[in-house]
């Protein structure tokens, strides 16, 4: 039987290797780069007896996202009842952005915050940004179809007047040839939250330590499971350094990638702004972790010109 060649990365797959199934789109995808796999020979191939271990692996991968969504909902309902700090009505936000387009992107970029803002669920129209999920009964386990509806609400987030906090990542993402929004390159980034996927009435810094512990104890587990599903090429962190300790993927050690010596107005900084990079592995894939200290918003102490230049320099890591 002829080999199948991925049109994106050139990897050759035997017929049984091509049967990795994307947990959200349910498409066959390349095992190396996750590009949707559409072999010219696929329709002509006679039915084959697929090895049992391959079938088990595909079934497991297909159910990963559904299981994660329902595990997150159990935690959401338990904490909402006991702590009364979660914005409600609301839904957990596992990620923000178009997962389907993200899967076709190269490089695959993920940005990271701490937890969703209560502003994502305005009091006058709670589900204006997640309208597909408004009628879901999230107090119970979701079916496969309901999980699809839930994920659709996340995928369409940036089509529904997104919170302007995300503007702070625009220029760096542009430099990386990607965006949260539709763009000519066809690349889309996703945003995730390290500490919790639950929006809280207070900002993270104003929550009690006991509440932060309760939220992040489960939240960081959910984040790591999500990242294993998303398989990014680069993860951008612009948060307080102490939160990096919550990232449990094995790292090569942080090194200074670039030092920025000028302020927004062009005057010298008293202390350079260091952007640091570490290499990690998620499964068998190399991933770049990038850290820059946050101010009020991610990378907001840098001018937009410098942010764009930083993104372009980071993009060269993939060339």
Largest sheet: 6 strands, mixed
Oligomer: single chain
Query: What is the count of structural domains?
Result: 2
Structural class: alpha/beta
What are the segments in which pLDDT stays under 50 over at least 5 consecutive residues? 14-19, 39-48, 54-59
Rounded to the nearest angstrom, the radius of gyration is 20 Å
Care to count the β-strands? 10
Strand order of the largest sheet: 6-5-7-10-9-8
On the 0 to 100 scale, the average pLDDT is 86
Give short descriptive properties of this protein.
319 residues, alpha/beta, 2 domains, 6-stranded mixed beta sheet, 10 strands, 28% helix, 16% strand
Write up what this structure looks like.
The chain is globular. The chain is of the alpha/beta class and 319 residues long. It starts with a strand and ends with a helix. The chain has a 6-stranded mixed β-sheet with strand order 6-5-7-10-9-8, with helices on one face. Strands 1-2 form a two-stranded antiparallel sheet. α1 runs antiparallel to α5 (209-230). It has 2 domains: 1-50, no CATH class; 61-318, no CATH class. The longest helix is centred in the N-terminal third of the chain and has 32 residues, at 52-83. The chain contains 6 helices and 10 strands, in the order ββββααβααβαββββα. The model is unreliable at 14-19, 39-48 and 54-59 (pLDDT under 50). The chain has helices at residues 52-83, 99-103, 144-155, 170-175, 209-230, 304-315; strands at residues 4-5, 12-13, 20-21, 28-29, 109-113, 190-193, 234-237, 255-262, 268-282, 285-291.
């Amino acid at each position: 039987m002829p080999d199948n060649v991925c049109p994106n990365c050139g990897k050759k797959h035997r017929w049984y290797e091509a049967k990795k199934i994307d947990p959200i789109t349910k498409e066959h995808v390349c095992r190396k780069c996750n590009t949707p796999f559409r072999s010219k020979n696929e329709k002509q191939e006679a039915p084959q007896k697929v090895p049992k271990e391959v079938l088990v692996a595909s079934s497991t991968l297909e159910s990963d996202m559904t299981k994660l969504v329902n595990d997150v909902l159990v935690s959401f309902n338990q904490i909402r009842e006991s702590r009364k700090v979660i914005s409600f009505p609301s839904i957990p936000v596992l990620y923000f952005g178009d997962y389907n387009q993200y899967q076709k992107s190269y490089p695959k970029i993920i940005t990271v915050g701490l937890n969703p803002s209560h502003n994502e669920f305005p009091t006058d129209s709670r589900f204006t940004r997640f309208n597909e999920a408004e009628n879901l009964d999230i107090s119970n386990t979701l079916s496969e179809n309901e999980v699809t509806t839930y994920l659709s609400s996340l995928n369409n987030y940036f089509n529904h007047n997104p919170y302007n906090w995300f503007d702070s990542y625009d220029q760096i993402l542009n430099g990386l040839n990607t965006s949260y929004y539709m763009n000519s390159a066809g690349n889309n980034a996703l945003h995730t939250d390290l500490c919790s996927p639950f929006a809280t009435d207070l900002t993270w810094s104003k929550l009690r330590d006991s509440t932060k512990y309760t939220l992040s104890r489960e939240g960081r587990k959910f984040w790591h499971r999500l990242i294993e599903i998303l398989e990014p090429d680069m993860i951008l962190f612009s948060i307080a350094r102490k939160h990096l300790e919550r990232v449990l993927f094995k790292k090569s050690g942080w090194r200074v990638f670039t030092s920025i010596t000028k302020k927004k107005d062009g005057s010298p900084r008293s202390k350079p702004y260091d952007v640091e990079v570490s290499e990690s592995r998620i499964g068998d894939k190399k991933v770049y972790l990038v850290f820059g200290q946050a101010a009020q918003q991610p990378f907001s102490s840098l001018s937009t010109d410098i942010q764009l230049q930083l993104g372009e320099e980071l993009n060269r890591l993939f060339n």
